[in-house]
Automatic annotation (TrEMBL):
InterPro entries: SAM-dependent_MTases_sf, SAM_dep_MeTrfase_SAV2177_type. Pfam families: Methyltransf_19. It comes from the Bacteria. It comes from Actinoplanes nipponensis. Residues 249-273 are annotated as: Disordered. Residues 249-260 have a biased composition (Basic and acidic residues). This is S-adenosyl methyltransferase. Gene3D superfamilies: Vaccinia Virus protein VP39.
Length: 273
């Protein structure tokens, strides 16, 4: 199940902030260290609504999963950048609608591996698997035998890249990874992506974001609408297209919806024709 050598606890680095634990801190979880809280607080100084953005991203993930399971008939998910288990993980949302759903979770953080038991609570009819692997090596993810033992790649799969692609820095760096993964999936498969963006930010905050990237106090790489939309090249964008995560099919969410500048994250879902 793991490509780790030695006990998982030996691999956990409590001296460097990690995205999964920082996100867990913003979501109010307890699975984080002082270094993650300090990094989370540092980002809150330039982007004070980061906690709300994390919550809205999580709600998008759940709405997109419900759409895929209930409306699109998807029964297989490849969820890369899983994060630490929290309430309503992908398999729980999907299996409530279709208990036979199969989910492969992938993350590169050993801390997620240490908590993976909570991700492996499948219904008896379905199945969940956890792999430790890196999104930046999509070919290696596809080559893992456990992936094909759990997912039938002749049938549609939803590829979930929710709040993970922005840890792959560089303009245009996301598209080839998405392409490699989607090329391995058949017609009728879906792509779900969210990514931080500076687009709705006031000029002063956008400049602070650039300064934080340059100083290394954030490693969350923002993508503008054009670059984000390009991730869906060759796919049919599902209505309402590329939107702030807080506005995607959010008609049943409490009003008023947050100001997009307080979220600064795009979301979208596309279908492979
Ligand atoms: C912000 S969390 C998102 C969790 C979940 N997808 C969600 O949206 O609620 C990002 C996750 O991506 C993982 N991650 C970051 N870079 C990664 C990479 N190169 N390969 C695999 N996982 C990665 C982190 O360890 C973390 O668990």
């Amino acid at each position: 199940m793991s490509i780790l050598e030695g006990p998982v606890s030996d691999q956990i680095d409590s001296t460097t902030a990690q995205p999964a634990r920082r996100y867990n801190y913003w979501l109010g979880g307890k699975d984080n260290f002082a270094v993650d809280r300090a990094s989370g607080d540092e980002i809150l100084r330039t982007f004070p609504t980061a906690r709300l953005a994390a919550l809205e991203n999580r709600r998008f993930l759940q709405r997109a999963t419900r759409f895929l399971a209930a409306e699109a008939g998807i029964r297989q998910f490849l969820d890369i950048g899983t994060g630490l288990p929290t309430a309503d993980n992908t398999h729980e949302v999907a299996q409530r609608i279709a208990p036979e759903t199969r989910v492969v979770y992938v993350d590169n953080d050993p801390m997620v591996m240490a908590h993976a038991r909570a991700l492996l609570t499948s219904t008896p009819q379905g199945r969940t698997t956890y792999l430790e692997a890196d999104l930046r090596s999509p070919g290696a993810i596809l080559a893992q035998p456990q992936l094909r033992e759990t997912l039938d790649l002749r049938e549609p799969v939803a590829l979930m890249l929710v709040a993970v692609l922005h840890f792959v820095a560089g303009y245009g760096a996301g598209a080839p990874i998405v392409r490699t993964l989607m090329d391995a999936l058949p017609s009728g498969s879906f792509l779900v992506v969210t990514n931080a963006t500076k687009d709705p930010l006031p000029a002063r905050m956008a400049a602070d974001y650039d300064a934080a990237l340059a100083a290394g106090t954030t490693n969350i790489w923002p993508r503008d609408r054009a670059e984000f939309t390009d991730l869906f090249a060759g796919l049919e964008l599902i209505e309402p297209g590329v939107t702030p995560v807080s506005e995607w099919r959010a008609q049943d969410e409490p009003e008023p919806r947050p100001d997009p500048a307080h979220i600064a994250m795009y979301g979208g879902v596309g279908r492979k024709p």
